[in-house]
């Protein structure tokens, strides 16, 4: 009987440094309550985000894909041969397929995602489409130190689409980019999507879609806390709120308490006043120069940048020595 070689491998890249319960309570006990956006991405949250990316108002995914399709050959050439492609926050691995089309010689792909079930499902599907490719699915929070399996390729290139870099605070972005530069040495590269500053109406519409999918995505965070932490949030008593903060150059997403209420999480109680919010996400926007200046401070050399015709979105290729 012929043995069929499996080309998908699963790895645990790190264990959380703090448990979810402690981290959530810490954020909700602050004067300005917050929850890290990484907790959006349970299975339902990941599926909702995939739906968001297909919305008319949500330009980033559509525009980034246009750039990828138009310049994929140039990007593949910049990344070069004998390189393992590592994707941070791989999700459904949809965008990387465009890049893979232009890289038929690629031998190793390493998707890294915090949502283990969604990661494994996506990796399995991709491995069947690209049977020549060794797919190493790594379950990890890529913002912390993580381990990847030993790779055969001489170099690594990180693919980090979606302008997820905008979700970090400025000091967190610097820390993340420095960590990524260390991960890529020697002579690796970073292909990263960066959302650009633009008309405020376009930005506000992107995070307040008419179908209410972004609202469901935000509210699902509370549903996850109810399920996993035995909380008792009444989803009808919180409302999605997103807006562009021009002075800070970022979209802010919040969950607004519609009444005075006390929530129980495990054995702890958290009080909300009417109108008080949980700050769930920031999405910083940049100019090309702002982003490149930050990258240089973190050990990268900007090599190429590609944009759409409206200059709404950019993709940068950065290298390290």
Give a verbal description of the structure:
With 321 residues, this protein is of the alpha/beta class. The protein contains nine helices and 13 strands. It has helices at 20-28, 43-52, 59-79, 94-101, 116-129, 170-184, 200-206, 213-229, 288-297, and strands at residues 8-12, 83-88, 108-113, 134-139, 155-160, 189-195, 238-245, 250-257, 261-265, 268-272, 277-284, 301-307, 313-319. An eight-stranded mixed β-sheet has the order 1-4-3-2-5-6-13-12, sandwiched between helices. A three-stranded antiparallel β-sheet has the order 7-8-11. A two-stranded antiparallel ribbon has the order 9-10. Helix 3 (59-79) packs parallel to helix 4. It is globular. The N and C termini lie far apart (48 Å).
Describe the secondary structure blueprint for this structure:
Elements: E1 8-12, H1 20-28, H2 43-52, H3 59-79, E2 83-88, H4 94-101, E3 108-113, H5 116-129, E4 134-139, E5 155-160, H6 170-184, E6 189-195, H7 200-206, H8 213-229, E7 238-245, E8 250-257, E9 261-265, E10 268-272, E11 277-284, H9 288-297, E12 301-307, E13 313-319
Parallel strand pairs: 1-4, 2-3, 2-5, 3-4, 5-6
Antiparallel strand pairs: 6-13, 7-8, 8-11, 9-10, 12-13
